[in-house]
Amino acid sequence: MGSKATLSDRLKFYRKAAKLTQQQVADALGVQRSAYAYYEINKTTPKLATLSKLAKLYNVSVDQLINEEDYNTLMTERAEYEQEVTKGENLFDDKFNDLSPLEKSVVLKLRIMSAEQRRNVVDTLF
After folding, report:
1. Residue 122 CB: number of other CB atoms within 10 A?
2. What pLDDT digit, counting tens, does each position of 62-92 carry?
3. DSSP class of residue 19?
4. Which of 9, 45, 63, 77 is close enough to 5 for a disulfide, judged by CB 3.0 to 4.6 Å?
């Protein structure tokens, strides 16, 4: 039996698959980079609200973040997830990398907002 993939393993996995830095994720969550890094090294555990934002950011369910599946299963899923990310179907395509740091930050923050919050932003801007 293989070892279990921890929440910290999955957070690092999804962040890297999405080609995001710890700083970008931390900015989107509105926390310090060190606070986010603690999640990835299993020093602290994110609250449910933060897990929900992370799930939205990575376009996965909260269950996918917290489910203690076999590490080998996670790595198999990683290949499939990375293919989807590469196709730009679920997360960000190469155009995302062409954005300025400020633009990337805005996109990431919009992604974790509720539909109502996004509508309010759009209404305010336009």
Report:
1. 10
2. 888 887 665 566 666 666 666 655 554 445 6
3. T
4. 9
Which two structure tokens, joined as six digits, stand for 49? 């609200």
Does the pTM surpass 0.85? The reply is no
Supply angle C-alpha 28, 90, 2, rounded to 5: 90
CA–CA distance, 56 with 114 (Å, rounded to integer): 9
18, with CB counted inside 10 A (0-12, 13-18, 19+), is buried
| 50 vs 123: CA distance, rounded Å | 25
Contacts of 107 (CB under 8 A, 6+ apart): 92, 96, 99
pLDDT in tens, 92-124: 666 777 788 888 888 888 888 888 888 888 888
